[in-house]
Specification:
The structure holds two protein chains of two kinds. Chain A is mostly beta strands. Chain A is built from no helices and twelve strands. In chain A, the strands form three sheets. In chain A, strands 2, 5, 6, 7, 10, 11 and 12 form a seven-stranded mixed beta sheet that branches. Chain B is mainly beta. In chain B, strand 7 and strand 8 form a beta hairpin. Classes of the chains: A mainly beta, B mainly beta. Chain A binds chain B through residues 4, 9, 30-31, 33, 35, 40-45, 48, 50, 58, 90, 92, 94-103, 105-108, and chain B through 4, 6, 9, 32, 34, 36, 41-46, 49, 89, 93, 95, 97-107.
Chain lengths: 114, 114
């Protein structure tokens, strides 16, 4: 069974902390994505990566960075956590072949910044 | 700027009846559309998709209709079952040779009343 695994289901962090959210996929997918889900706003794309060591900004990259040192792992970094980054964070991956639009999502990390 | 919009945040339907979820988009470059279903504490899962060269795609109880001139798509679920209670997101993409990224709507919470 193919999987996208997010290391934490729930996290509570203090304002100003540096926060790492980890995502690992076992499907040999080329593409990986980080979204956040907020009520009334749906899923918004933060960053994505089409290959190892490459990254591109999504729609709301401010306050975030990412790292993709290995194909299977895509990390989201909150440089200095703020309360407005309290959200559900969802990682996804896709195969990256032409015509394949299917994403596989992880179960999400609910982050609370206090 | 919300390029994909779901104007109904919630919908309640009696078991056995038809559920119709609607989605509008503004970007005329979108050429592929998908519906995802999300249960609480889980990541979204792919439900059904449609290419812009079609106006209808059917998979069991689920049918997606696309009206390109109106920039509108809808998901029909017939008959509705209690297990269909979830949040539904529509998503859209522009073909990019395997490097597609999805733009999601705000979601509609569907509740099936037994």
């Amino acid at each position: 069974d193919v999987k996208v695994t997010q290391s934490s289901r729930y996290l509570v962090k203090r304002t100003g902390e540096k926060v790492f959210l980890e995502c690992v996929q076992d499907m040999d997918h080329e593409n990986m994505f980080w979204y956040r889900q907020d009520p009334g706003l749906g899923l918004r794309l933060i960053y994505f990566s089409y290959d190892v060591k490459m990254k591109e900004k999504g729609d709301i990259p401010e306050g975030y960075s990412v790292s993709r040192e290995k194909k299977e792992r895509f990390s989201l970094i909150l440089e200095s956590a703020s309360t407005n980054q309290t959200s559900m964070y969802l990682c996804a991956s896709s195969l990256g072949s032409d015509g394949d639009y299917g994403y596989t999502f992880g179960s999400g990390t609910r982050l609370t910044v206090v | 700027d919300q390029q994909v919009k779901q104007n109904s945040p919630s919908l309640s339907v009696q078991e056995g009846r038809i559920s119709i979820l609607n989605c509008d988009y503004t970007n005329s470059m979108f050429d592929y559309f998908l519906w995802y279903k999300k249960y609480p504490a889980e990541g979204p899962t792919f439900l059904i998709s449609i290419s812009s060269i079609k106006d209808k795609n059917e998979d069991g109880r689920f049918t997606v209709f696309l009206n390109k001139s109106a920039k509108h798509l809808s998901l029909h679920i017939v008959p509705s079952q209690p297990g269909d209670s979830a949040v539904y997101f529509c998503a859209a993409s522009v073909s990019n040779f395997g490097n597609e990224k999805l733009t999601f709507g705000t979601g509609t919470r569907l509740t099936i009343i037994p």
